[in-house]
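Before the break, one more example. Copy the sequence into your notebook; we will annotate it together after we see the structure.
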Amino acid sequence: MEVVSAGHLNASMGLIGLALSSIFVSCFYFFSVDPAKGRFVANNKPCTNLSVVETFRLFTPSLHFEQPSSQRTGSYSKVMCKGESGRSGEKRLCRFSNVCYDRKDQKLLFYTNPAGQLPLVFDNGIVEDFGDHFLNQRGGCSNVPDYLKIEKLKHPLPQEHANAFSNATISVLLKPFWAENFGHFLVDDLFSVFSGLSLLSLLTPDAALVLPGKGCAEIHGGSELTRCEKFFEQWSRGLSRRAVLRLSDDMTFPYQMACFDTLVVGVGALCFHGGTLGRGSDFWMFRKWMLLNMGIADSPSKLCASPPCKSVITILKKKESIHPRDIINFDAMVAHLTAKFSHIAELQVFAPHVATAKEQIEQALKTTVAITPEGGISFWAFFLPVGSVAIFIDHWDEGAQASVHMEGYFWTNMPWLHDFYYTVKRNEV
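Here is what the structure looks like once it is written out:
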């Protein structure tokens, strides 16, 4: 079983001590936002003996998108795409204007002028029609594509669809990928939307998130469906002020067609492996964007090593279940850490699955050191403050005969936290 056993617990706590020691003696740069200059400023507090002050200029997306036409019906659709050249749509991102979505047949309707041949020009090539694999509607995971059906009609947008337009100026169509897992939901779904809107200079908190078909129920059932819907209900607020629009047949929207002034579809960021290397600043901006939209003030890590101030060690507890990455000696680990570090730190056991999104973020922001199993639960650490430490407990890979950092390739690219990994041995599992 891929777990840490109690037999080697005390001998293996050196990593915990090392992490705590390093955070108490190191100097960390704390970042603040200067909105007027569109940049993040880093200073050397609380290590005032250093005089280094660095300014990191980051890309601030502008909102220079076209306003919707006052005459929607009787006009034609437009499309602009970025992404792979040629005809492969696995990694393409497109912005459509003046289009409708047939909720029953689950296809996008694109209206063209029959008077002349109007080829679609994009990606250094010309395509005169939408193929079956033109566009992947699964936002972040291009290696598991789900292609959008697009039908090109040779007439303008009909008058009877005039009242079927979304009241959002910008909308994003997203087919979720494994959205019952918080890590995939956060990175493959929400970050991909953020990244895609930024790439097209359309980033705004008023963009509407649109789920095709029956939304979560399209791909999940049972407890997975419940988690997926809970994630969208609570966490999508960090991306947009608007409620998620589900294009299912049983929604209160009274029209078969749902029409959009601007609809973004496609891959904004590749899933995990291909999308994180060198993109730490993008994820930092995404984190700041979510905190801003959820009305939560960011704060640096609280480095306290002597009474009455204490640092906070948060230990994440998975939902009660039998899972290869569970910590079966969880209580023994907590007892050992309490005995060893309670004089300098307050230990708090935290179960994300019973907390709201706001409660989870607030717990993260007051944490100095986080200890977590791998997998979806570990992405709670995404909201840890600048200068904090995250300790991820490995699992044993029988095939590789090695201790494996399951998401190490992701966390090593996040510049605001210090990542450590508790490695396991074969005789510990």
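The longest helix spans residues 182-199. The two ends are 5 Å apart (CA to CA). Try to locate both features in your own notes.
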